[in-house]
Amino acid sequence: MNGAEVLIRALEKQGVEVVFGHPGGAIMPVYDALYDADLRHVLVRHEQAGAHAADAYYRASGRTGVCFATSGPGATNLVTGLATAMMDSSAVVAITGNVPTSLIGTDAFQEADVYGITGPVTKHNYLVKRVEDIPRVVAEAFHIASTGRPGPVLIDVPKDVQQATFEGGEDAFDVEVDLPGYRPTVVGHAGQIRKAAEAIRAAERPVLMVGGGGQVAAEQVMNFAERTGMPVITTLMGIGAYPAGAPQALGMPGMHGTVTANRAITHCDLIVGAGLRFDDRVTGKISRFAPNATVVHIDIDPAEISKLVKAHVPVVGDLRDVLPRLGEELERLDIADWWEQLDDWKGRYPERYKTDKPLVSQEVIELLREHTKGECVVTTEVGQHQMFAARLFPTSEPRTWISSGGLGTMGFGLPAAIGAAFARPGQQVVCVAGDGSIQMNIQELATIAKHRLPILIAITNNGVLGMVRQWQELFHAQRYSEIFLADSNPDFAKLAEAYGIEGHNVFDRETARTLIPEVLARGGPALINFVVYESEKVYPMVPSGAGVDEMLIGDQEPEEAPA
């Protein structure tokens, strides 16, 4: 075998079934080896989309996503996707070709310092210099990517290493990974778990806040919540880790969180943070976040504990280990008075929006949830539609709500829908997009068309960069700078049809109500462009630099002000 064939064999040894990628000169030997392999390769139309698809493949399935790219611009096009996966803790292995080792550092054609460039946006990266190292490096990469706090790993393989002769036999692929400097803490410390239980028992107004780490521990989250009776807040990344419609669910916290979730944070006396980073979009102004609360922070990554919010009781470990053991220390909590207050807020501040205007995004998104019954995978682009979807189209199963949280990457949602469709063959996927974000990777309509994937792309088209417009209206004296798209947007329905995808333009709520179930019933790839009201805003909203107790409630204001 040559090095390229060894690489493919090593991927097969890891159980890889699908690879997203785009060929080029420096990775041609790998693609030649791929020709005779059993791996399914999905040709994306841009390398960034390949990274996003691999990311979503992991998020939807729990299996490490894999993407290929060539050297130079091919590899640098992966960077945004790797940074997205890094911020959101997604297990991705990216493999790039590079110029021959003798040309590295000479500014050769399509050369870039991929190893140096990707270091800050990967959990680990490799530059392979010997063909003998490929089996070990691949095994280590998958181990690092998928254990502890998941993250992306890059393997850069020069062309001459791909072409070199490999002298090892089949036993060379039976690699026992031994990384003395990498020992993630999985089992929580018994003493810290006891301290956490003591703090919870003493609380009168507790909340359980679940982040993206809850996706791998949804059963444990559910059991812990049921055992204790604690109210549950799920972050943007935690949606699906606890059922959105459950009685104990308070919704999403933070900048565009629900009134109930943010008021619960402000008035609680204890937070159990499970698998989350307490990032700035969740906390708002740190000094005003949960001012009276004891914080129990459970996370597999010790670097996240007390990074932003001080943890009074830190517990390092996997939620699948810690939550059951913590639950065994506890009985159902006596917090009836707290629930009375929470239920009052939930009753006063249900999700609402005004329908005295033309078709609005919230209406469209509610229709999508109604007609899918939430039994689908939801991916989103980034912007107002993302926040509307988080609140009005949350799913109730883990790994079924996929969005770019930490990096906020426009262009994520469409290729993410592709990755999710390959991770869950045959399952309906709905990509909620804006007319700005969708154009960042719109060329992937070709990939969707080629594979006839069951993806409904729902564009809420308000003709502007909606979230930027909202900020300019509220905080920049309505000085609308470079946000208008309507005069240059394509006819999205015709564009979809040009790719061989069913396309529709919708301008009114009556058509929306009849068309959505019809399109879903057909089950094939489709795009519906919903032309919606330009000036809608996402409320509640916590202004930048403010505390979560300083929400602008807007459309969520009840008819009668609270006492």
Label this structure with key terms.
563 residues, 18 strands, alpha/beta, 21 helices, six-stranded parallel sheet
Question: How does the SSE layout of this entry go?
Answer:
Layout: H1 3-13, E1 18-21, H2 28-34, E2 40-43, H3 47-61, E3 65-69, H4 73-76, H5 79-87, E4 92-98, H6 114-118, E5 124-127, H7 134-146, E6 152-158, H8 159-163, H9 190-202, E7 206-210, H10 218-228, E8 232-234, E9 249-251, H11 259-267, E10 270-274, H12 280-283, E11 294-299, E12 313-316, H13 319-328, H14 336-348, H15 361-372, E13 377-380, H16 384-392, E14 401-402, H17 413-423, E15 429-434, H18 445-451, E16 455-461, H19 466-475, H20 492-498, E17 502-506, H21 509-522, E18 526-531
Parallel strand pairs: 1-2, 1-3, 3-4, 4-6, 5-6, 7-8, 7-10, 8-9, 10-11, 11-12, 13-14, 13-15, 15-16, 16-18, 17-18
Write a structural description:
- With 563 residues, the protein is α/β, with parallel strands linked by helices.
- It has 21 helices and 18 strands.
- Strand 7 (206-210), helix 10 (218-228) and strand 8 form a beta-alpha-beta unit.
- The longest helix is centred in the N-terminal third of the chain and has 15 residues, at 47-61.
- The radius of gyration is 24 Å and the shape is globular.
